[in-house]
């Protein structure tokens, strides 16, 4: 296989278009323990980034050798950083954006999905679709992100294959096309059958390699494992080719159909097939919606949006890094870019590329790449950078928090300072801040509990503000809007103590529980309650 990309022929392309087309920017979505970290390591191995691969899963001792970022990371032994891992394979550039998943699950996990063009959904073959996967899938669906499915841990006892596909179809309303099919299961898992081309790839015989599967006749499999019922396997494969939907690139690209691969990340089996699928089917950087027009990735002028801010990556310098996804054109180190929100220019003197644990200066980057831009609080989540054009990319949303707490200041004299600090923290996307209209102390909202720990640590270290969090009478927050301004005003007036302003001054309804939220919704005619807010 010389080039995995589908679009290889056609007329001569500009160097920019060629660079853009060979990029695949993706994330892995999964429930904790499904095998995301293991799969990431194996993908990096394919790309030759072996020195990084061993560090992805930096548990225990290995964790101590990494750069000394936030104290909280060290204490918990987990990564707060959403890093970007870039590797090349078969002349393609893969940008894998890490989605924090365990205790470090946060809004950043969601926002990262706004910066990718496709996602790999990893499912534990014994467990099927789990809660977190489902949630992350819903975020992908908001933007019709194409999904490739990897059903992992086939070397262990697993659920019936048809059942698993059926579950994906029913719970996610997503059509499936198996690209490979497992032969045997659990301890008797022998390998996978290539549904498109026929032939079986055996687990034992170098499953890591890509390329044609070994052409093994199914009947010959019996000799390899007496437990296999070869007749049943043949029947099953006949049913697969008859009953399963053929792969359609367009349906996949529109987010309606997922190709499914089976394998074992731990045994490095099926990973090559998956990577090949990513290269062949996943889109190169897609056009991005802005408030004015759609921006094509191969337009010559650089544009980008910020989807994540990381503070204190180097405590000695107290720097902040904004992670920006390039939407079009080429970024060259030293160039000037316009920050559209303020109208001011900023020099991109030291944009950086991130690897698993390292960073390096980025002399040039292309649409689809993610660069880190050091700054001192100038850049916010959702900011757009251009070469002068007045456009703002849409689609870096805020998500309704799952945990709401009231902030209690131990030194009441510092209320003003706290207000400023919370404003900054919410602009950086650390937490969301809601200020009740009745003047009660501010509430903070997060989707992952670690965000609260980060907030507390940073308020203490950077602002000398020791705070505690109290359980609030409110548990849920929903943005409220209406086509009829008067109706909205009347609703706000009637629900005074349950309405707060978010960081942009947009009204948010706070509810004690789901029941109360439902009850209020039913009676609030003309008011829209939303659990997602697009950054304007
Ligand atoms: P995560 O990032 O999605 O949370 O999952 P991770 O890769 O850390 O994998 C979770 C556990 O599942 C790990 O075991 C890992 O070795 C195991 N695992 C991953 N892929 C496979 C697979 O294909 N087959 C089998 N049998 N196991 C797999 P652990 O015991 O929790 O961690 P460790 O002690 O091995 O580090």
Share of helix, binned: 25-40%
CATH topology of the largest domain: Rossmann fold
Class computed from helices, strands and strand pairing = alpha+beta
Strand element count? 32
- Characterize the quaternary organization of these chains: single chain
3D shape: globular
Beta-strand content estimate: 25-35%
Number of helices: 15
* Terminus-to-terminus distance: 44 Å
- The residue ranges in which pLDDT falls below 50 over 5 or more consecutive positions are 1-9, 50-69, 77-82
CATH architecture call of the largest domain: 3-Layer(aba) Sandwich
Q: What's the mean pLDDT score?
A: 85
Strand order of the largest sheet: 27-24-26-25-29-30-28-31
């Amino acid at each position: 296989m010389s080039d995995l990309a589908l679009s290889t022929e056609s007329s001569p392309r500009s160097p920019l278009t060629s660079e853009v087309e060979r990029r695949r920017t993706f994330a892995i979505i999964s429930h904790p323990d499904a095998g995301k970290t293991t799969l990431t390591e194996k993908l990096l191995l394919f790309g030759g980034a072996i020195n990084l691969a061993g560090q992805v899963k930096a548990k225990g001792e290995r964790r101590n050798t990494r750069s000394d970022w936030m104290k909280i990371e060290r204490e918990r032994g987990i990564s707060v950083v959403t890093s970007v891992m870039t590797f090349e394979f078969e002349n393609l550039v893969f940008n894998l954006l890490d989605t924090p998943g365990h205790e470090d699950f946060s809004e950043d996990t969601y926002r990262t999905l706004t910066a990718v063009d496709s996602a790999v959904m990893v499912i534990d073959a014994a467990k099927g679709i789990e809660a977190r996967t489902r949630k992350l899938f819903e975020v992908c669906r908001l933007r019709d992100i194409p999904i490739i499915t990897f059903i992992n841990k086939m070397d262990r006892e697993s659920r019936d294959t048809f059942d698993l596909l059926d579950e994906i179809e029913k719970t996610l309303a997503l059509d499936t096309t198996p690209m490979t099919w497992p032969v045997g299961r659990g301890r008797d898992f022998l390998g996978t059958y290539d549904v498109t081309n026929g032939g079986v790839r055996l687990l034992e015989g170098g499953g890591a390699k890509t390329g044609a599967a070994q052409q093994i006749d199914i009947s010959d499999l019996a000799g390899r494992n007496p437990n296999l019922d070869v007749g049943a396997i043949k029947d099953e494969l006949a049913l697969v080719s008859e009953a399963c939907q053929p792969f359609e690139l367009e349906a996949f690209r529109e987010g309606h159909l997922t190709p499914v691969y089976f394998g074992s990340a731990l045994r490095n089996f099926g990973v090559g097939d998956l990577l090949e699928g990513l290269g062949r089917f996943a889109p190169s950087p897609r056009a991005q919606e802005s408030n004015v027009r759609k921006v094509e990735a191969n337009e010559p002028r650089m544009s980008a949006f910020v989807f994540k801010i990381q503070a204190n990556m180097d405590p000695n310098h107290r720097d902040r890094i904004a992670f920006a996804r390039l939407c079009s054109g080429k970024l060259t180190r030293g160039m000037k870019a316009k920050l559209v929100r303020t109208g001011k220019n900023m020099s991109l003197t030291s944009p950086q590329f991130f690897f698993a644990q390292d960073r390096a200066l980025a002399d040039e980057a292309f649409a689809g790449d993610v660069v880190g831009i050091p700054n001192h609080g100038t850049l916010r989540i959702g900011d757009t950078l251009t070469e002068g054009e007045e456009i703002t990319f849409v689609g870096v949303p805020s998500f309704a928090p799952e945990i709401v707490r009231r902030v209690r200041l131990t030194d009441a004299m510092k209320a003003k300072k706290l207000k400023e600090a919370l404003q900054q923290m919410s602009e950086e996307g650390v937490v969301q801040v809601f200020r009740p209209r009745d003047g009660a102390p501010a509430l903070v909202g997060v989707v992952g509990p670690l965000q609260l720990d980060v907030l507390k640590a940073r308020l203490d270290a950077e602002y000398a503000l020791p705070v505690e969090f109290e359980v609030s009478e409110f548990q849920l927050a929903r943005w409220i809007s209406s086509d009829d301004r008067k109706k909205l005003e009347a609703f706000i007036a009637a629900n005074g103590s349950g309405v707060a302003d978010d960081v942009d001054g947009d009204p948010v309804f706070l509810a004690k529980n789901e029941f109360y939220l439902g009850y209020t919704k039913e009676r609030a005619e003309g008011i829209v309650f939303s659990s997602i807010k697009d950054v304007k």
